[in-house]
Amino acid sequence: MSAPNKSYDPVEVEALKPEEIERMRDEALAAFAAAGDLDALQEAKVAHTGGTSPLALANREIGALPPHAKADAGKRVGQARGAVNKALAARQTELEAERDARVLVEEAVDVTLPYDRVPAGARHPLTTMMERVSDVFVSMGYEIAEGPEVEAEWFNFDALNFTPDHPARQMQDTFFVQGAKGADSDGESGVVLRTHTSPVQARALLDREPPVYVVCPGRVYRTDELDATHTPVFHQIELLAVDEGLTMADLKGTLDHMVQSLFGADMKTRLRPNYFPFTEPSAEMDMLCYVCKGESVGNPDRSCRTCSSEGWIELGGCGMVNPRVLIACGVDPEKYSGFAFGFGIERMLMFRHNVEDMRDMVEGDVRFTRPFGMEI
Ligand code: FA5
Q1: Which residues on adjacent β-strands are paired with residue 152?
Q2: Residue 166 CB: number of other CB atoms within 10 A?
Q3: Among 107-121, 161-175, 300-314, 316-330, the least confident range
């Protein structure tokens, strides 16, 4: 700081001379303009507006001036500092805008670029469909039962009342793994790839004491050609209930409950007479078309692709367990009766999700599976 100003003249103080103040201001403005980025501007700010900057030091000199000269010098320094602060703020705004624009370009993500992360898988819709159907029965107190896919011919056919000359036992219908009992056999049971989930009925009855309530999902095999509506390896789900006093009414009520749980409260089923060796009486079960609810029948203005305007969709087979099956599995048919039904999961997936070709389900292409989502 200068010595006391004996002459009382502000221009006598070197730092407060107008040309000095102007030089300090211009140097500050030039330094701000030259700062190429925010770091450089920060340095210039400290140098030209900080506590030891020339203008700050000049400001301190004002205190040494006589009262009448203070206002003049104060105004000069104040104006210079005002101009410096304004220029600093303007340059700050300018450099921040430049930085933001640069960051937007440098950190932009091209979402169209190929990515190398391992894509998350999706469960096959056949699996989720099978679990969804099983859950309907598990929530009613049924137990899940499983059996082997390589099955004794006895369980697959004999225990289920298939006669030795039943056509299903022919090589052209069934994959035989070992021997074929059939009509000409020497009495030994062969080994087959199970052709349906019904052998699990026999296994469940042999394993448990009645009452028996089981649901049996699983993979089955037939010598069918792979085409739009058939596959040699497919999935079925089977239901078996054996208890005292069960009737066809219980079967019908259970079927209705199943389709209502899966397709909506206004759904129902119908039964048409059919034949299966292991149920008597037997029926083919249809469910109301869940899309048109039967309104397409005889109504050309309201045709329905899902049911081909028939109003009903064929689901599978069912019936009252044949007493011969109960006897073969050690259950007293005088005391117990039962009902069973079974249907194909692929077929249900086809009409529920408008899948037109069953081959899409077996080819393992994730483009088919992915749209069904990540349902667990
Ligand atoms: C049976 O397999 C009986 N076990 C069902 C049953 C269980 C009846 C309990 C009575 C009591 P069926 O042969 O009709 O029935 O086959 C049942 C379903 O399997 C068919 O409705 C069809 O949806 C499905 N299915 C049959 N063959 C194929 C195939 N090659 N590919 C895909 N699905 C098939």
Answers
A1: 191
A2: 15
A3: 107-121
Residue for token digits 């408008």? 354
User: 342: Cβ below 6 Å to ligand 1?
Assistant: yes
Q: Residue 117 class from Cβ within 10 Å (0-12 exposed, 13-18 middle, 19+ buried)?
A: exposed
| Per-residue pLDDT tens over the stretch 169-195 | 876 689 999 876 554 455 667 899 999
Alpha helices in 107-177, H assignment, sequence order: 125-138, 153-156
CATH code, 125-372: 3.30.930.10
Percent helix / strand / coil, the chain, rounded to 5: 45, 20, 40
| Integer CA distances (angstroms), 329 to 4, 137, 363, in order | 122, 23, 39
Give the residue, by CA position, lying nearest to ligand 1 atom 28.
230
CB of 276 shorter than 6 A to ligand 1 = yes
Q: Name the token pair of 74.
A: 């104060």
Ligand 1 and 340: CB distance under 6 A: yes
Measuring CA to CA, which residue among 373, 370, 367, 348 is closest to residue 358? 348
Domain limits of the chain? 10-106, 125-372
Task: Work out the end-to-end distance of the chain between its first and last CA atoms, rounded to an integer number of angstroms.
Answer: 80
pLDDT tens across 335-347, in order? 999 999 999 999 9
Task: Give me the amino acid identity at 365.
Answer: D
